[in-house]
Amino acid sequence: MQQEQSEKALFELSNISKQFPGVKALDAVNFRLFPGEVHALLGENGAGKSTLVKIMTGVLPKDSGSIQLQQQEISPSNTAEAQKLGIAPVYQEVNLLPNLSVAHNLFLGREPTRFGCIRWQQMAEDARQLLKRFKLNIDVTESLSHYSVAIQQLVAIARGVAMNAKVLVLDEPTASLDSSEVDTLFDILRQLKSEGIAILFITHFLEQVYQISDRITVLRSGKLIGEYPITDLPRGKLIEAMLGQELQQVTGEQTEATEPAKREPLLTVSNATVPHSVDDVSLTVNKGEAVGMAGLLGSGRTEVCRALFGIDTLKSGEIKIRQQPVTLNQPADAMQQGIALCPEDRKTDGIIGPLSIRENIALALQVQAGWWRYISPEKQRTLANQYIESFHIATPDSEKPIEELSGGNQQKVILARWLAISPQLLILDEPTRGIDIGAHAEIIKLIKSLCDEGMSLLVASSELEELVAFANRVVVMRDHRKVAELQGAELSSQSIMHSIAEV
Amino acid sequence: MIARRFVPLLATFSLLVVMFIIGGFQFEGFASFQVVTNLLTDNAFLLVVALGMTLVILSGGIDLSVGAVVALSGVLCAVLISEYQWPPLLVFPLVLVIGTLFGTLMGSLIYFYKLQPFIVTLAGMFFARGLATTISEESVGIEHPLYYAVADSGIALPGNAWLPSYAIIVLAVLAGLFLLTHYSRFGGYVYAIGGNSQSAALMGVPIARSTIGIYAMSSFLAAFAGILYTFYTFSGYALTGIGMELDAIAAVVIGGTLLTGGSGYILGTLLGVMLMGIIHTYIIFEGSLNSWWARIAIGLLLFVFIALQKVLNRSSQRG
Amino acid sequence: MNTETSHSFAERLLKSRYIWPLAALLLMLIFNLLLDASFLDIHFDNGRFYGNPIDILHRSAPVALLAIGMTVVIATGGIDLSVGAVMAIAGAVCANLLVATDVSLFTVLVAGIASGLLCGLINGALVSYMGIQPIIATLLLMVTGRGIAQLLNDGQIVTFQHAGFSWLGSGTLLGIPVTIWLVLLVFIISQLMLRRTALGLFVEAVGCNSSASRYLGINDRTVKLMAYLLTGFCAALAGIISAADINGSDANNVGLWLELDAILAVVLGGAALSGGRFSIPLSLLGVLIIQTLNTTIMVSGMPSKLNLLIKALAVVLVLLLQSDIFRKQISGLAGKWRHS
C-alpha cells in the first residue's frame, strides 16, 4: 500500500491549457507531485507559474486538461473546495485575517463548540498544541496583525496542516523573510515532508531551490520545459532552461553599453533617509547613463524610486539635480525638475483603467501645463497616435480604454505618458513585470535607445539578466541600504546575486 | 498597558461616568437608579437597532434603512391590530418575517450584484419609508388589552425603580446578540468578512450566507425595535425613526467599533447607546436647551470618535 | 455634406450614452401626451410662459442644482448625503438675515452661499484630509446640519417678506422663471470650468484611480475638496431658491429626501457610483426624468406618496442594469428562452 502510493503521483495535472485574451498562459502543461517531496516550480515572470497554481487551487478554471488527486479526478471551483480536498495554498502576501486572533485564524470555521458556543479556551489550547509542532511559542489570543510576516506565514502553513492538507502550495513564501526565518521555515518543511505531505514550492531564489527541493519543474512562456530530479539539473542548466532562447536574443546585443567617458552628474543623492524604508542611501546618475537598481522585494529599491519622485519625503539627506539641491515634497515638484516615474504596480499606481489611451498618454503633459491650459482632445489624439505608431501599441485607435490592453501595451502607454513630458531622468520600477516576451524585448530596446539619445535612466528590477543587459552601473539594495555598486567587468548577474544574498 | 482597541471603549465608559457625576451634582434626582433604568427603557428600541447595526458595521458594511424599517413595522403593527383587528401574537411574527425578508433582499442585492451597501440600503430606506407612508400617513393608535397588560408588567427594583417588561426583553436580545457575535461561528464570520472579505473567502468562510444573514439580522432587529416602539408610544407612525440610522451608527462607533469593520464589541454598543441617552437626559434636565442640541452634540461626539479611530489606527500602523 | 454629418450624428446618437435616458424621457412624455394631449402645451400670459414643460423645469431647479454638484462628487468616487441639510442651513441663514437685519440682498446671498461653501469645506476636509469614508463624513452633516438649521430658526418656520429675494424663487426673466435661468447659468459655468479646462479630466482621473493620479502629480486631495465645495455651493443655491419660493425657511422639511433624487439623477445619467466618467448634461437629463415622473404621478391622479416607492425601485433597477452580473444573467435567461 505504502509502496504503491509512493510510486503513483499524489497529485497530477495533465495537459492543462489556459487561454487569456491575447495570450496562451498555459499550453498543455503537465505537473506531478509525489507524497513526501518538495517540488520546485520555476520559471521567469510570465512563464505561467501563477496561472498553474491558480488552477490547482481553484481560483481559476482550466480550459482543458485534467487534475487528479490520489487518482481521483477533481475540479475545485473555488479555494474553499480545494482546501477541503486537501490542497492548501500559502501566498506571499499572507491571506489570513489580521484582525482575528492567531487561534481564531487557525480554526476559523472549525472552532470547537459546546451547545453551539465557541469554546475559546479550548481553541487557544488546541492552537498552542498545533503551533508546538512548528516550534512557535506565541500568545495565540493576540491578533495576527501583532506578529511579523514570517510568523504569519508559519501560521498560514499551520492552518493548512491542521486542515489535513495533503498538498501544500507555497507561492514565494520566503520573499519577505530574513535568512534565519527562512531556516526555520525550511526545518518545518522538512518535517512536513517526512510526514508524507507533498509540497509545491515557488521561489525566485535559486539557492533556496537547491537547499530544499527534491525535484524541479520548469515552465517557460506557458509551456512545460521539463521535470528534473534536483541532481540532474545544476544551476547553469536550470538558468538555461528558464531563460531559453528568446531572452538570449535580447541579451545578445548586450555589453555594447559603451562606458561613458566622463559624464556630468544629473542626479546626486547623498545620505537619503526615509523612516522605515530608505536608510542612508547615496547614488549618482550621470547624463545619458542607465543605472540599474537590484534587490529583493522590500529591500528599499521601490522606496528609493518613490523618494526620488517626491511621493515619500526625505527625513534627512539631500537630492541634487544638475548640482542644485532640490526639495521634492510631491510628484509635481519632481516633474518640475524633469523627473518621471513608471511605478512598480502598474495596475494601482500606473494606469487609469477606464480612461482612454489618449487621455492616459496626455495626462502627465496636461498636469505639467496646468489645469487651465487645456490640451484639446484633437491635440491629445495627435500626441497619442504618434506614440501608438512609434511604440507599436496594439490597438485599433487611441480611444480604447487602457484597461483593455495587455500588460505590455499598458506599460508602453505609461512610458509614452512620461516621454511626452521629455524628462531628463526617467525612473522605471520593474518595467517588465508581467509582460509578454515580445513586449519585454521592445521595452529593453527602447530603454537602450533612450539612453543613446542622452536621457538618464534609473531602473529598478528583480530580473538580473535584464539589468546586466542595459545598465552601465548597478546599485544593489538590501535592508533599505545600498550594499554595493557594480560596474564594468564586475557587473554580472552572478555578482549582483552575490551582493543581494550577502555572500 | 491597555490594548489599543480598548481605548475608545474606555473613553466612552469614562465619559458616561463623568456625565453621570456632573448631572448628579447639577440636578437633583439625576444620579438616581430610576434614571439608569429609564436610560435603558427610553432607548430600548435604539439599542436593538444599534445591535443589528453593530453586526453590519463589524462586517464592513452599513445599513441606512433601519429607521425606515422601524417605522414600517410600527405602522404595520398598528394598522393590522387596530384597523384589521388581527391578534397581536399573529401580527408580531408576521412583521418580523417581513422585516427579515426585506433585509434578505437587500443583502442579496449587495452580495450577488456587488452593489455598494450604502446605496442599496439608502434605496431600502426610501422604499420602507414610502411603503409606511402609503399604508398610513397618519399616526395610528393601538388599543389592545395585550398592550396595557405589557405596559403594566415589570419588575420592581430596589430604590423604588421599576423595570418594565419590555426592557427585560431588550436585555434578553442583548444577551442573544452577545452570544451570537462573540460565541458563535457566524459571529466569527462577521469579523472575518470585516477584516478582509477576500481572505475570508479563501479561508472558506461562507460569504454569501453570512453577508445576507447580516443584513437580514439587521432588518429583523429593526422590525423588532419597531414592535417595541409601538409598546412605547401605543401607536404606529410612518415618520418615526427619521435619523435613527445615524443615532445607531453613532452608538456603534462611540461604542468602539471600527467603522471600517473587523473590530468591536456588542457591549461597547450598549455603552454607546447609554452615553447618547445620558446626553438626551442631561438636555431634558437642563430644560433651557433645545432638543436639537442633542443632535449637534451627538454629531460632534461621533466626529470625535471617528477622529480618535483614525489617530489610533495610524499610530498602530506605524508602531 | 450636410446629410453625411446628420447621418453620422444619428449613428453616434444610437451608440451614445444619451440613448437610454432620452428614451426613458420620451416614453414618459408620450405616456403623458396619451393621457392629456395638451401636456406639452405652453402659453404666454401676463408676461410669462405657463404650461407643464415650464412647470417641470421650474420645479426641478433645486434637484438640478444638487445634481450638478453631486455628479462631480460621485465622479471623484465620493458621495454627498448632506445636500438636503445644507439647503436647510443656507435657507435658514438667508431667512434670518432678511428678518432680523437690514443688510442688502447681496450680503444675504453672499452669506447664504458662504454657509454652503463652509459645509462643503467641512465635508471635503473630512473626506480628503482625514480620510473618512464619504458616506460617513457627509452623514455627519446630514443630521447635524438640520439641527444647526433648527437652532438658527429657533425651532420655528421663519417667514419673511422681501420682493427681491422672492424674485429668485418665483420671479421671471424674459417670461421664464428665474430658477431656470439660474440652473442654466450654473450648468454653463460648471460645464465650461470642467470641460474647457483640464479639471474635468483630473476629476475623472482621480475618480478612476486616485493612487495613479497622485503618481501623475495630480493633487487628488485638492480635487476632492473642490468637488465638495461645488456641492456645497450648489446646495446653498438650491436652498436659497427653495426658501425664496415659499418665502420662508422650514428647517425640517426643505430639501428632505432630495439627496436621493440627486443621486438617482446621476445614476440615471449612467454614471457609476464608484467614480470615474461623468457627464453633467446626462445627469440633468436624469433630473428631467425624475421631475417628469413626479408630474406624471400628480397629473395621472396616483397618490403622490408613491413617489418614494417608485424612486427607490428605480434606483435599484438602474443599479442592476449597470451591474455586469445582472446583465449576464438577463442575457443568459434570454438565451434560454429563445432555445426553448
How would you explain this protein's 3D organization?
- The complex is a heterotrimer of chains A (503), B (319) and C (340).
- Chain A has helices spanning 2-7, 49-56, 79-85, 102-107, 120-132, 149-162, 179-194, 206-212, 235-252, 301-308, 331-336, 346-350, 357-369, 377-390, 407-419, 437-452, 464-470, 493-500, and strands at residues 11-20, 23-33, 38-42, 64-69, 72-74, 87-90, 113-114, 117-118, 167-171, 198-202, 215-220, 223-229, 265-274, 278-286, 290-294, 316-321, 324-326, 339-342, 425-429, 456-460, 473-478, 481-487.
- With 503 residues, chain A is of the alpha/beta class.
- In chain A, a hairpin with a 2-residue loop joins strand 7 and strand 8.
- Mean pLDDT of chain A is 82; it is low at 1-6 and 245-257.
- The two termini of chain B are 15 Å apart.
- The model of chain B has no long low-confidence stretch (mean pLDDT 86).
- Chain B has a single domain (4-318), classed as ABC transporter involved in vitamin B12 uptake, BtuC, CATH 1.10.3470.
- Chain C has a single domain (28-323), classed as ABC transporter involved in vitamin B12 uptake, BtuC.
- Chain C has 340 residues and is mainly α.
- Mean pLDDT of chain C is 86; it is low at 1-6.
- Classes of the chains: A alpha/beta (503), B mainly alpha (319), C mainly alpha (340).
- Chains in contact: A-B, A-C, B-C.
- The B-C interface holds B 62, 109, 112-116, 118-120, 122-127, 129-131, 133-134, 137, 243, 246, 249, 259-260, 290, 292-293, 295-296, 299-300, 302-303, 306-307, 310 and C 79, 126, 130-133, 135-136, 139-144, 146-148, 150-151, 154-155, 257, 260, 263, 273-274, 303, 305-313, 315-316, 319-320, 323, 325-326.
Summarize this entry quickly.
The complex is a heterotrimer of chains A (503), B (319) and C (340). Chain B is mostly helical.
Q: What is the rounded Rg of chain A?
A: 25 Å
Share in β-strands of chain B: under 5%
CATH architecture of chain B: Orthogonal Bundle
Number of strands of chain A: 22
Based on helices, strands and strand pairing, what is the structural class of chain A?
alpha/beta
The largest beta-sheet of chain A arranges its strands as 6-9-10-3-11-12
